[in-house]
Design brief:
By secondary structure, this protein is of the alpha+beta class. Helices cover 49% and strands 16% of the residues. The strands form four sheets. Strands 5, 8, 9, 10, 11 and 14 form a six-stranded antiparallel β-sheet that branches.
């Protein structure tokens, strides 16, 4: 085979160019620290790198969402702690106000302090985030959730209303996990069950007047939740579907005090009211002894008993005609409880009967404050659980990020030892090609003629 001079030049030049291209590629890899400079360098690794990069970016967004949710919930948690401290301070003052040796001016001074606490609570309820959004307004982050309405006589101050909603601001903190980053104002301040959470007790009067005796009813307790719910939902034959209430009425014969349970529920308007219906026999009363809420239909009706699974305790000595009410709990805002306590403390006490009524009402308000504290504790526990979840998710995200970085490094990053060795080898090969080309290109028959 005949090899022409042009072939020698073309083949030598092409070989040198290939070596220069490989040397340039190695030089770029060494300067960037990356093995993959273009997808053509390793198509399979490039495809895997693209998928891993996208997954890493998505996980990074989840991590940023987790940090954002953590900041919001920590701010909510700090406000809940402040609210707990405030309610505990209010409770302490209410207990102090229960001392009957205090004068009217002393109680009014406590009322002034509670009024200041009321305004402080309203400030907590309308607190904002760093972005200017209200924390406890649900979806209505730009609208103030709580505001006091105008006073309607004879009241001296207006009630606090809630203008937010029950929306949960959800944030995507994982591939299949959304987390609420807020607490609604209705849940925290408005929807608080009065009394002991199941029913409320109160003195209901004596013939249109206040109770005349020294009897005080405690908050009571539910011993069997299932029996209580069953009795309310139809297990007890209420004579009316409105204003469901059991009443404990006292009587006295020859100095012996007794009580009897009455159903004082009424049919809904416009139906005519009905008279109270006796639903238990007359039973002897012992101060401080539990009174079970067990009804028995009286003659001529056939005997049918209903156990409400609950009991109350009445201390002191109720007078004949005194009565006490047991009503299913309804939602009552902590603002209403505070305002009622303030109004009660500002009312002068001019008689022993008024003092007994005051003590009973104050005890009921104290129970509502305790319910508010329990509610705040439950909400704060929920927030704490969410914060713990976010901490676990954040730890997982950090671990995933390390794994993604390691996988990407294995695919993309340069092995410097191997690259330097290859660079040196290619450099020597290029020098050899250049020298051999110079030698071959210098060969000519004219040197031998």
């Amino acid at each position: 085979m005949r090899i022409s001079t042009s072939q020698l030049y073309s083949s030598g030049t092409a070989g040198i160019e290939r070596k220069q291209d490989q040397l340039l590629k190695l030089q770029n890899q060494l300067s960037t620290g990356r093995r993959l400079l273009t997808p053509a360098d390793d198509p399979v690794a490039a495809a895997r790198t693209l998928g891993l990069t996208q997954a890493k970016e998505i996980e990074g967004q989840y991590a940023r969402n987790q940090a954002d949710a953590t900041d919001r919930l920590r701010l909510v948690d700090s406000q809940l702690t402040a609210l707990t401290d405030l309610l505990q301070s209010v409770r302490s003052r209410v207990v102090q106000a229960g001392n009957t040796v205090l004068s009217d001016s002393d109680r009014q001074a406590i009322a002034s302090e509670l009024a200041a606490r009321f305004d402080e609570m309203l400030g907590i309820a309308n607190s904002r985030s760093a972005e200017g959004e209200y924390l406890f307004s649900g979806y209505q982050g730009a609208s103030q959730p709580f505001a006091r309405s105008a006073a309607l006589p004879p009241a001296t101050t207006g009630l606090v209303g809630y203008s937010g909603d029950d929306g949960e601001r959800l944030l995507q903190v994982g591939a299949s996990r959304q987390l609420a980053t807020n607490v609604t104002g209705s849940e925290l301040f408005m929807d608080i069950r009065a009394g002991n959470g199941s029913f409320a007790t109160a003195a209901s009067g004596n013939g249109g007047l206040a109770n005349q005796g020294t009897g005080l009813i405690e908050a009571g307790s539910v011993l069997d939740r299932e029996k209580w719910v069953t009795a309310l939902d139809g297990g007890f034959p209420w004579q009316g579907s409105s204003n469901r209430e059991l009443q404990i009425r006292f009587s006295s014969v020859a100095g012996v005090s007794s009580y009897q349970l009455f159903d004082v529920s009424t049919p809904p308007p416009p139906a005519a009211t009905v008279s109270p219906l006796a639903v238990s026999p007359v039973l002897p009363f012992t101060p401080g002894q539990a009174i079970p809420l067990i009804t028995t239909s009286q003659p001529p009706a056939p005997p049918v008993s209903t156990d409400f699974g609950a009991q109350v305790v009445i201390n002191g000595s109720p007078a004949a005609g005194d009565s006490f009410a047991v009503t299913p709990s309804v939602n009552k805002s902590v603002f209403q409880t505070m305002q009622e306590m303030i109004d009660l403390l500002r009312t002068p006490l001019s008689s022993s009967v008024a003092r007994m009524a005051y003590s009973g009402q104050l005890q009921a308000h104290l129970g509502n404050v305790d319910q508010a504290l329990v509610n705040v504790a439950e909400v704060q526990a929920s927030v704490g659980t969410r914060l713990q979840t976010l901490e676990n998710l954040s730890n997982n995200s950090a671990a995933f990020d390390i794994q993604y970085q390691q996988s990407l490094s294995d695919l993309v990053d340069l092995d410097y030892v191997k690259a330097i060795s290859d660079f040196t080898r290619e450099q020597v090969t290029l020098e050899a090609a250049q020298k051999s080309f110079a030698t071959i290109s210098g060969l000519s028959l004219f040197k031998y003629i």
